[in-house]
Write a structure and sequence with these properties.
By secondary structure, this protein is mainly alpha-helical. The chain has four helices and two strands.
Length: about 70
Amino acid sequence: MGKVKKGITCSVTGCTNPAVKSVSSDEFSMVQTNLSVNVRGSKIYLCKEHYKVFKKASKKLRRLERWRISRFG
C-alpha cells in the first residue's frame, strides 16, 4: 500500500487536500509551474487540482520525450 492510498496530503504549500498522484522531484523541477512545494524525499504528492496544473505545464515536455523515444529509441 502506497502513501497516496494511506492518505498523505498534497505537497503544495498551504494545501491540505488529500493527494491523488505522486511525481518524482526531478520530473517536477524540470517543469515551469508557479507552485511552491514542500519536498519530502524524492517524491512530490499532488492533489487533483494541483496535478492538473502540473500535467498542463508538462505537456510539451512529455510530447518531446515521446518524440525522442520514437525517433531514436
